[in-house]
Amino acid sequence: MAQNRQQKKAQKVPTVNLKKGDTVKVIAGKDKGAEGKVIKVLREEQRVIVEGVNRIKRHTKVVNQGGRAGTTGGIITTEAPIHVSNVMLVEGDGVTRIGFRRDEVTKRRPDGSTYAATRSVRISRKSGKEI
């Protein structure tokens, strides 16, 4: 029993290399070929919400709670999350995978002295340029 708890605690949250604002292209699913901007990244579920992709209709009830600030009922069309494996980052006229590179930078301390440090940079696997 205690071993299961330790295993669950040791599980790492998966990394998602996409960021909010990235332009991505859908490479699989019903919206294959569609492009859009990433609105939100759901890291724990490994999913992203892309503008104009995977749109669903949700039926909502009229809620009179909160006085005049109640919501009106009807059919609302919103974007649903899509798995990160089904999208690729758009670079130029094609798509690319995302890699990382450590760059040397000089940083400044509050007292004015400088020191060398490294910074992680996202790069395009296709061209090698910084994203």
Summarize the entry for a quick read.
The chain has 131 residues and is mostly beta strands. The protein is built from one helix and ten strands, in the order αββββββββββ.
Q: How is this structure best described in words?
A:
The strands form three sheets. The protein has a six-stranded antiparallel β-sheet with strand order 6-3-2-1-7-8, with no helix packed on it. The protein is mainly β and 131 residues long. It is built from one helix and ten strands; from the N terminus they run αββββββββββ. β1 (23-26) and β2 form a beta hairpin.
How is the secondary structure organized here?
Layout: H1 2-10, E1 23-26, E2 35-42, E3 47-50, E4 55-60, E5 74-79, E6 82-83, E7 87-91, E8 94-96, E9 98-108, E10 114-124
Antiparallel strand pairs: 1-2, 1-7, 2-3, 3-6, 4-5, 7-8, 9-10
The rounded distance between the terminal residues' Cα atoms is 45 Å
The biggest sheet amounts to: 6 strands, antiparallel
Structural class: mainly beta
Total E-strand runs: 10
Shape: extended
Q: What is the alpha-carbon Rg in Å?
A: 21 Å
* H/E element sequence: HEEEEEEEEEE
**What is the residue-mean pLDDT, rounded to a whole number?**
90
List unreliable stretches of 5+ residues: none
How much helical structure, as a percent, in the residues?
A: under 10%
Helical region count? 1
Give the DSSP E fraction (strand runs of 2 or more residues).
Answer: over 45%
Strand order of the largest sheet: 6-3-2-1-7-8
